[in-house]
Amino acid sequence: MRARKKYGQHFLEPAWADKLLAAIDPHPDDRFLEIGAGPGALTLRLAARVRHLTAVEIDPAMVASLAPKLPANVDLVHRDFLDFDVAGLAAAGPLRVAGNLPYNVSSPILFRLIDVHRAAAAAAGPSAAGLVDATVMVQLEVAERIEAAPATRNYGVLAILLQWHADVRRLLTLPPGAFRPMPEVRSAVVRLTFRPPPVAIRDAAAFEAMVRSMFTQRRKTLANALRPFAESVGHDAVTALTSAGIDARRRPETLHPAELARLANALGTKHKAVL
Question: Residue 153 — φ and ψ, nearest 5°?
């Protein structure tokens, strides 16, 4: 099959598909969701190792080529993953996720997974059915942003929102030669192991909105970076920082997620009317 630039396709070489499968570590009783089946390099390997696999693929040519090769325990869905009902699939029981994410939509896909995990936990508690983990291949630059620690160059919204809901671990780093056609960048495989947030947040949407607002001015002092969001919800930035026990002279990029949670709680939930 010829890769189509429209879909950001780069096909994994067989030897690297084997390494990816080993990193995913599937088990016979697992239910899996694969993002982007492509020509089936990972799909066929997973199918042989798990109880059930739902593979989502946007390219009709790939779907037509792969469908006749699949065993009975695979459901192949022709759809854009961002329009796919992940929540409905996760509601049926514990679900693991794997995939080689298109570079141009990797962040929206990751945020979609976090939304599904958060909604499932809110509806039925953290021990209920839902997303267990996601082992995904992304551009190396994205992987570095996902795993970044506070006060580092790559620390920002992506790291905070993902690490708030999941433990992050890089499993593999791949050279361009692991794919055909070769991309111009290196890639990495990261695993997100979903869990409850370490600190209860009164309003998850407020937390996310605050973080996004503050990190547009990440190098300003907290007093200045927080002010636009704080005023939009009827609070004073310095008062909220004092209430949360955070020095107003620090910068947003130095705050750990737990500190951001305390700050969001100090600001309350009045933002709902303006989001």
Answer: -60, -35
Beta bridge partners of 246: none
- Residue in the structure block whose two tokens are 């309003």: 203
CATH class of the domain at 204-270: mainly alpha
Q: Is the dihedral of CA 87, 92, 95, 97 positive or negative?
A: negative
pLDDT in tens, 190-223: 999 999 998 888 888 899 999 999 999 988 999 9
Please list, in sequence order, all residues whose beta carbon lies within 8 angstroms of the beta carbon of residue 187, skipping any fewer than 6 positions away: 137, 138, 139, 140, 143, 173, 174, 176, 178, 179
The pLDDT value given to residue 1: 63
Domain 8-194: state its class: alpha beta
Q: pTM score, two decimals?
A: 0.90
- Look at the alpha carbons of 88, 93, 94, 99 in this order and tell me if their dihedral is positive or negative: negative
Rounded-to-integer distance, Cα 272 and Cα 203, Å? 9
- In this predicted structure, the answer to whether residue 125 has a pLDDT above a threshold of 60 is no
Domain extent listing, the chain: 8-194, 204-270
